[in-house]
Write a structure and sequence with these properties.
homodimer; alpha/beta; 5-stranded mixed beta sheet; Aldehyde Dehydrogenase, Chain A, domain 1; 7-stranded mixed beta sheet; 13 helices; Aldehyde Dehydrogenase, Chain A, domain 2; 2 domains
Amino acid sequence: MWSVDPRTGNQRERVAAEATAGDVDGAVRAAHAVRGALADREVRIALLRAAADELTADGARIIATADAETALGEARLTGELGRTTGQLRAFAAEIEDGGYLDVIIDRADDSLTPPRPDLRRYKIPVGVVAVYAASNFPLAFSVPGGDTASALAAGSPVVVKAHPDHPATSELTGAALRRAAAKVGLPEDVVTVLHGFEAGVELIKHPLVAAAGFTGSVRGGRALFDAAAARPQPIPFHGELGSLNPVVVTEAAAGEKAAEIGAGLAGSMTQGVGQFCTKPGLVLVPAGEAGEQLVATLAKRLADVAPGVLLDGRMRDAFLAGVDARTRLDGVAAPVAAGEGEGRTVAAGFLTVDGERLLTGGEHDLLLEECFGPITVVVRYADTAQLTALLARFPGNLTATLHLGAAEAEDPNGRGAALLAELTPLAGRVLVGGWPTGVAVTPAQHHGGPYPASTSHSTSVGATAIERWLRPVSYQNAPEALLPPELRDDNPLGVPRRVNGTRQV
Amino acid sequence: MWSVDPRTGNQRERVAAEATAGDVDGAVRAAHAVRGALADREVRIALLRAAADELTADGARIIATADAETALGEARLTGELGRTTGQLRAFAAEIEDGGYLDVIIDRADDSLTPPRPDLRRYKIPVGVVAVYAASNFPLAFSVPGGDTASALAAGSPVVVKAHPDHPATSELTGAALRRAAAKVGLPEDVVTVLHGFEAGVELIKHPLVAAAGFTGSVRGGRALFDAAAARPQPIPFHGELGSLNPVVVTEAAAGEKAAEIGAGLAGSMTQGVGQFCTKPGLVLVPAGEAGEQLVATLAKRLADVAPGVLLDGRMRDAFLAGVDARTRLDGVAAPVAAGEGEGRTVAAGFLTVDGERLLTGGEHDLLLEECFGPITVVVRYADTAQLTALLARFPGNLTATLHLGAAEAEDPNGRGAALLAELTPLAGRVLVGGWPTGVAVTPAQHHGGPYPASTSHSTSVGATAIERWLRPVSYQNAPEALLPPELRDDNPLGVPRRVNGTRQV
């Protein structure tokens, strides 16, 4: 695999080779063979913390390499490394907490009809997890990212298919994870990094792969989802694919803070050169003066945004083609034209269109598809009824955002509440105010949403991401001596449990 | 649809018609239109309890009809009705408990880097649920069964595809559910019953169907799973398909209680004429004297079991063909031959085979597939190593059962613990002693298992069955006035929550 500098298009260095089918088989078998080593919770806690330490220790080199491969910049990548190590430590804390095991104990009761046996349920790791790394977060959603961290936390070994946009970063971070494993006495094969498109295809078909996580495009994710479902033994495929991340600005919000919203939008949609999966890609603004003020602020702010370099040349081509196709649609204007910048850069811009164009299907439905890069679509809606009709046509999303006027935010029976209810079916995270870029790593986070945002109901960020790599099992009348500690009467690990209907925290 | 008496093969009465594509579309649209009516938790609690009451009130007629259509007998069906109403009431209690909402609240924290917004997560209903009813439990896994009860509890309306073996029972129980809806002020369309094979195919493809539950054969379930995955917007398909339910008897257990185990096996494998999805279909017994004593007891007890009537003629044909194909395999003996009984009955029996026949694949792998009806396969294993090698070849199961000697059950580092660890990857419920038939309806139950036992990691029995019909959503910085009560600071409904990392029960 060649590491390429997207700022120049030049090959930087050759790192690793594309994995053969034999390499994939070897990696999965090795991971499967060592899965038992992850059974001990203390060693998993130590592994995750050691991984954070190793990444931090090699941080300068990792950040420099990632910047050279992705052009995301040192500041952003420094933040992303902190997010990544924080994520690893957060999952260590979740293991300590133990709530993720979802322990339920119902003791035997002969007085019931029929008599109830002793049943004790918790969750066990699924087995080898395949992780498909993302392009746009070379750390936090790649080799050492949330999928890997949550799978290891669950006790499942990981085989990562690296993203071709940052093979050198993938090798460095993979080595850090394997060093961490060795330091805590685990076999290094609890994590393996593989490269190459064909390796990814082989991986999802391997009989010993028990589940998969993916972050990327609708096209790639759907192909792998289909392959996972078509296996002789289908496996769960937790894919995060595309998202439009609609934003609704009410008449009142536009009236009260058009300039603030316009400026915020310009910042959010150009963050990371518009390459966030939570980029606000479509903004519903009321037709009329207040809405136009918002649009004017957006235009002014975007004019000040310097062109940026996308992750790779293929994405640049797709962005330019996507912008072009959308701009050509009837009734679409480009107050600030996105497009080619100097050298290999692209300039940010936005489009406008009247809501009625999006009500009837046809070619304008292209505007309801994600366009990866620094572009957004401002849709002017005529009235409340049209807004509702527009929302009903939207696909599933990671996020939906609602900007309300001050009074709307205070009235439980008003327009704000009604709009929140209309947005909730559209997304996994619904924001009131603010912008969807920036995904807090915290237990209450949900980073997922109705298809095509996700291929499952799971999240890839936050504590509950661990649920993807576990399956429940219930023991019936197992003697105390044979039970795992989490299910024993004396609860030696102090995990939260529901016993005979009563929660014990 | 004709209601047929399996005892005679005669058509009893004509009930309802096969649903057309238009009927399916109408039912799903009607269900979707009324989904909001299920948002109120008090009305859902009332609905489930009223449904239990309605079923009880019409119990005599329902039981008589079900018996006439299934030949399962009044005693069994009386118990099943109690299980069904108990299940409905248990889900009402789960709504009251509120723990299923999995509420997590992380309050804003500006002291963090980056600052954390206010995030509040809970679970919302997925939308219209398609339920595919089972043949073998005309009540508990059919129209008013666990899938329907858990979906309604979650707040999702239901369209049931009735099983053709009991259309009259399906109509009666569906009417009871719709009466219950009307009594508590809900639209009747929160539950609709449809009949016909084509209706089932149309149903899984309907764009407004958001998830499906299924109990039935591997063939039928896999076809529907594939259709669910192939949709433009794939949906979760929670299928319970086939299970062998292996039983392991150790040398010590056989030595201590061969007769007791043999007798228990005869009872379990013939319960419901061998038509339980948890029927022990393969029993690993040590070669040698103690094992032969177990086999002798089994033979003696089975000779006393009266022939029984299977659910329909097609199943009888499949059973006879399945027994025949297995009996013809090299090295397979039939100490008690299962097969045709008088009239339309079948006689129970069992097969024996040496473990080495099952180690190498080939035609003997037929013995690793479920054969629905009163037959089991006793596999004589030569030694511990062969037992381990055999277990490694087994498919996924709903249950796995381990019979241990007294000392083995007491030793956390002995043979019993090792075998429990070998059985755990094979099943969703692992029993020590006893028999897998009989699935307690209780929060700690897990009725599901690795494929082909299930097409997902979910359970179809017990409190956590509700998780199948929910998806998480997180609200970011939503003002208190707009939040649902479950997420408000004052927690007016008193649901269990995890707030800033601390559990509040």
